[in-house]
Design goal:
three-stranded antiparallel beta sheet; elongated; 258 residues; single chain; mainly beta
Amino acid sequence: MIRSLFVFALICFSPLLNFSQQELKDDLTRLQNGEDLNVLYRNEASFGIYAHTNTGLGLAYRRGKHVTGKRKRMFEVEAQNFKHPKEIKSVNSYFDNSKGFNYGKLNSFFVIRPGAGFQNVLYQKVSKKSVEIRYSYFLGGVITLSKPVYLEIIRPTNTPFEYSVSTERYNPNEHYPDNIYGKASFFKGIDKMSVYPGGYAKFALSFEYADRYNGIKAIETGATLDVYPRVLPMMAFNKKQQVFASLYLKMIWGKKWF
């Protein structure tokens, strides 16, 4: 009798069990595809490429984790080239086939910024087609690599109207536009690189528009301030600087997970 009742109950409730299993599968599929708005993905990682007003490009990586529903703790690493705004390419017009060079440039710079900060939501996304607006701020260190500039210099020989070309480190007291043939190989001088440590602060505003809630697609704009305890020897005939401010525009892609 009991066995018959159990079989009868199983037959009656089996459609409900199948329905619940299918509902769980559908929920799992929505989570995996990032289609559920009411889910908090605690972790995220993103990659970015940006242009900045110090006439260069940069790459960035970020790792974030939610502290609250609308606040994340962020870690980032950026790497970019760094040029002085007064760098102007010149050519020695007195010699055929001469190569371009930046007159007055003492060193080439490459900047690495590791830092940490927080990101806060100003306007939360309410649908796939909406945009989430966030602001963030970072503090961290700056590691700036400086490589001296080498040029190909024209030197007179003992034979009239004949010249030799030698590779020399740029010296503003000896090298002038009329005796510079062009820039030497980029790799020349790598063994004489110097390191300039410093610190940076950043404030940013970003607009996230991904069509999946577990994805990241964003445009970010912001300002960065780099400060150094030592002067950076960038240009020979310009004011020496220890503080550099820049604006940037960044494209960001990434993903979120639990």
